[in-house]
């Protein structure tokens, strides 16, 4: 397809596509003349993933390029591919400065038997949340979190079920990213609705 068709099918302007080409986020098309090139469905998939990374995840162009380069280097490793796309694997591989609650998080992961890398940003996020709760007089430990973690396991199964049958790495990465980031507000809304329903069941006259 010509760049105009690529723009129409992807919803990305021709100007932005040319910018992505200059920044090496999008590989060049097949030259048909000195000023014309043709693009295929692989370009379309990659362009959609770029949009998801920059628009949905809010990554910078530089970080998006790093993620795409890492994906290209590990297309045969679906587990790593999904981790890089969703941000559950650090590109640097370095662990962030540990929060005092990091030990509690590590103990929870071990008790659950989960395979979560030591540098996973989610470990830091969870530890920071526990520390904040403790500072506000709401101490929580791994025993309190355990039933929540079990519910999260069930959600993860549903999430990964959505990727079954997708053989193209870019398509799987895009679907995982959109389902994770865009579905999170919906899951939070469902939780609020369930809380209201439970409150009505317990307390409403």
From TrEMBL:
PROSITE patterns: HTH_MERR_2. Keywords: DNA-binding. Signal peptide: none annotated. Residues 1-70 form the HTH merR-type domain. Transmembrane segments: none annotated. The keyword DNA-binding applies. Gene3D superfamilies: 1.10.1660.10. Pfam families: MerR_1 (PF13411). InterPro entries: DNA-bd_dom_put_sf, MerR-type_HTH_dom, MerR_fam. This is MerR family transcriptional regulator. The lineage of its organism: Bacteria, Bacillati, Actinomycetota, Actinomycetes, Kitasatosporales.
């Amino acid at each position: 397809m010509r760049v105009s068709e690529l723009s129409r099918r992807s919803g990305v302007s021709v100007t932005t596509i040319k910018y992505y080409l200059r920044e090496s986020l999008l590989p060049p098309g097949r030259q048909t003349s000195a000023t014309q090139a043709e693009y295929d469905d692989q370009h379309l998939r990659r362009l959609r993933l770029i949009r998801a990374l920059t628009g949905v995840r809010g990554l910078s162009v530089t970080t998006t390029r790093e993620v795409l380069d890492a994906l290209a280097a590990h297309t045969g490793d679906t587990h790593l591919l999904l981790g890089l796309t969703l941000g559950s694997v650090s590109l640097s591989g370095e662990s962030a400065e540990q929060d005092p609650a990091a030990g509690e998080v590590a103990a929870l992961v071990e008790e659950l038997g989960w395979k979560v890398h030591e540098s996973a940003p989610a470990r830091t996020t969870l530890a920071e949340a526990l520390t904040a709760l403790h500072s506000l007089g709401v101490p929580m430990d791994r025993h309190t979190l355990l039933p929540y973690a079990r519910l999260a396991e069930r959600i993860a199964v549903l999430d990964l079920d959505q990727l079954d049958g997708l053989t193209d790495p870019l398509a799987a990465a895009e679907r995982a990213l959109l389902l994770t980031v865009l579905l999170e507000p919906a899951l939070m809304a469902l939780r609020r609705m369930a809380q209201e329903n439970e409150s009505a069941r317990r307390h409403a006259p």
